[in-house]
């Protein structure tokens, strides 16, 4: 017999997937300036979701029948194979999203991403490079309207997130 932590890991994975979907939907539906920290939040959430889902899949493979029954009890996929299939679809959409936002960054001027700043500590001014906080609505519109973002949001929605 192999012990499995699937009943503890799967709810964490589900919560992480929901958090990632919410962060991505926020980027997609927000208006006005786009905060770069919102992109960071979405990407961090996607990383956490992938990590937890892979952990859940590994734990589930220790007790496949019990894991499938547990997933069904919380409204999840009917089998580990279906779960793995959903993960593959989401991963492919996430790769396209990563490529899309990286390409979008390439359309921005350096001065739209970083600027010189001054830090004053104890009367001593120090110059450094600061990341900008926001990208204007017009420049953010292509990212918000990207097909890659729509596809990733749809892939997450397909699993109920």
Provide structural commentary.
- With 161 residues, this protein is α+β, with helices and mostly antiparallel strands.
- Helices cover 68% and strands 12% of the residues.
- The protein has seven helices and four strands, in the order αβααααβββαα.
- The chain has helices at residues 6-29, 36-60, 64-73, 80-106, 110-113, 137-144, 147-157; strands at 34-35, 114-121, 124-131, 134-135.
- The protein has a two-stranded antiparallel ribbon with strand order 1-4. A two-stranded antiparallel ribbon has the order 2-3.
- A hairpin with a 2-residue loop joins β2 (114-121) and β3 (124-131).
- α1 (6-29) runs antiparallel to α7 (147-157), α2 (36-60) runs antiparallel to α4 and α4 (80-106) runs antiparallel to α7 (147-157).
- The protein is elongated, with a radius of gyration of 20 Å.
- The two termini are 33 Å apart.
- The model has no long low-confidence stretch (mean pLDDT 95).
- How would you sum up the global shape? elongated
The biggest sheet, with number of strands, parallel, antiparallel or mixed sense and barrel status, is: 2 strands, antiparallel
* Alpha plus pi helix count: 7
Q: What is the H-and-E element order?
A: HEHHHHEEEHH
Question: How large is the radius of gyration?
Answer: 20 Å
- As a percent range, the share of strand residues is 5-15%
Structural class: alpha+beta
Strand order of the largest sheet: 1-4
What level of helicity do the residues show?
55-70%
Q: Uncertain regions: pLDDT < 50 for 5+ in a row?
A: none
What's the end-to-end separation, in Å? 33 Å
Count the beta strands. Answer: 4
């Amino acid at each position: 017999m192999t012990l499995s932590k699937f009943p503890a890991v799967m709810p964490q994975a589900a919560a992480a997937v929901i958090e990632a979907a919410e962060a991505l939907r926020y980027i997609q539906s927000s208006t006005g300036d786009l905060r770069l920290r919102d992109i960071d939040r979405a990407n961090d959430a996607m990383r956490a979701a992938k990590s937890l889902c892979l952990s859940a899949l590994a734990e589930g493979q220790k007790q496949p029948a019990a894991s499938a029954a547990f997933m069904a009890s919380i409204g999840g996929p009917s089998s580990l194979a279906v779960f793995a299939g959903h993960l593959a679809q989401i991963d492919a959409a996430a790769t396209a999203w990563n490529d899309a936002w990286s390409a979008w960054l390439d359309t921005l001027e350096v001065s739209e991403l970083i600027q010189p700043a001054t830090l004053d500590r104890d009367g001593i001014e120090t110059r450094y490079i600061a990341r900008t906080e926001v990208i204007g609505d017009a420049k953010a519109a292509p990212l918000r309207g990207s097909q890659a973002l729509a596809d990733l949001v749809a892939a997450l929605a397909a699993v109920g997130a």
